[in-house]
Amino acid sequence: MSSTLSAHSPKFGSKLTTFEQLADIPAPVALGPHHKPVPHVVLVDAIREEVATRGFDIAREQLAVSRTGAALFGVMDLVPAFSPDVASVERGLSFGFRNATDATMAIRGVAGSRVFVCDNLALYGDTFAMSRKNTTWLDLRWAIANGFDKFLRQSVDLETKIARLQSVELTDDAAKVIIFDVFAAGLAPVRLFDDVERFYFRPDPGATDCQPRTLWGVMNAFTRAYRDLSPTRLFNASVALGRRLLHGVIDVKADKVA
To answer: What is the distance between the alpha carbons of residues 154 and 159, in angstroms, rounded to a whole number?
Structure first.
């Protein structure tokens, strides 16, 4: 499988990292009297503990940091602790999160779904399960526990919405309108248009996720193309796409997705 978090952005200089390497990043400095940045290693460790407390194992953990080390992006693929066999299922639960110790971003977490056969990641962009600023008032353990409660509720809703996407059949003309609509709204870089078009309309035999002529097939075509984005763009684009297709209303002539 290819990595979901790519690391070749010239602007952000993002690079893949490990939990152990996070500990080597210098301690962040407060930028004001109320700014209390949470070190990335502390955040990831706290999330790991909450995952274990809730009865899950981490099947895979992917982390990336910006060139300066200030921004962190992560994805954890979760499986029930009593049944850790990822290979036996097509799709699994994922938790996406980000943080910035330089006050440019709040700590945010969002529910996600991983299509294992192609390593696609869909993030549920309706609401954030966790959204807290790095301040002196932050109770990290409470924020993560409360966020995980919301995450689990979101995950159930996400499965329902994915089932809905899978049930909406599309003509090629309807699919073209939806794809154009996503690009026209600025939710995906125009340079990915050819990739999305190829993934959906001319998928390889092994691209079973893109073969259904449904909204789910369209979403997978986008999430496949998104794998080449930097961690920053991937997180933001995935959340925006999820909001558009999972929560929004799309009118396509006679085809309506309410």
So the answer is: 9
